[in-house]
Amino acid sequence: xxxxxxxxxxxxxxxxxxxxxxxxxxxxxxxxxxxxxxxxxxxxxxxxxxxxxxxxxxxxxxxxxxxxxxxxxxxxxxxxxxxxxxxxxxxxxxxxxxxxxxxxxxxxxxxxxxxxxxxxxxxxxxxxxxxxxxxxxxxxxxxxxxxxxxxxxxxxxxxxxxxxxxxxxxxxxxxxxxxxxxxxxxxxxxxxxxxxxxxxxxxxxxxxxxxxxxxxxxxxxxxxxxxxxxxxxxxxxxxxxxxxxxxxxxxxxxxxxxxxxxxxxxxxxxxxxxxxxxxxxxxxxxxxxxxxxxxxxxxxxxxxxxxxxxxxxxxxxxxxxxxxxxxxxxxxxxxxxxxxxxxxxxxxxxxxxxxxxx
Length: 358
Description:
- The chain has about 350 residues and is of the alpha/beta class.
- It has helices at about 1-25, 45-55, 75-85, 100-110, 135-145, 160-180, 195-205, 220-230, 255-270, 295-310, 340-345, and strands at about 30-35, 60-65, 90-95, 115, 125-130, 150-155, 185-190, 210-215, 230-235, 250-255, 275-280, 285-290, 320-325, 330, 350-355.
- It has 11 helices and 15 strands.
């Protein structure tokens, strides 16, 4: 009798272990690779909010993890491979420089699904996604054109890739539609996240007469510098209002939560397919945070009209005429720039002071 009970108990334990293992195997492991820290209050911070949205949407069905501060290069390939080797079935790599490392690892792990942010190369198990940040640049350019007194705007730029270049140009085109004599001074910091360099760049631009600071970098340092100097600023990637309550006019917010939840759902339901997504205001990937009370009501109305018209396809940020820095026409009056031309933009337009590093 005792032997029988022991056997039954052993069988029950074995069954429980098998069930537990099966449950663990059924849980989808989702990994994230971040170029900066989750505390950057910008780009990586917003991606991590998207990771948390996955956990909230699928309690008990997913397990997420992340690796932060991953350099764009050989280290990235090692980190991505480690996630693939440890059972992650869906991996999001969230910076442009992770493109080739992602592709290399994906070739080695064909059953793992990869998603690369801001990239342009897809394979059967690598999808790409990005946001139309230039739409937000258009709206804040309109606001800056009304708010600047000196006509000089400082732009703290990160890495010289088309995404950043097109943002400078979209901003400048809108700025000069409201203030034709305005100039945009660009300082490159050659980093996505470096508070020290970003602060130094903002200081230099303010010293050159800029009374509005724009950034395509991830820390709130430029907003903080504008606050200290009594200038205006626009935040990047997340709402940076708390870092400069008086300076901060609004932020271009990157909201990845909806996309991450949808792609995880597809992976769970075995309907995931590779592809390319480029979302803007209409998809909710690009948003604007609340407007500073310092912006006049008519300027807020203008900004909101522009935002809504972009959603309704009545307005396009890249509408001619548009000339490059040499004065050569690159877009005729009334014409709209095609996506392929925005995605490969490698020149600055009239009104931009500075060069694109080679």
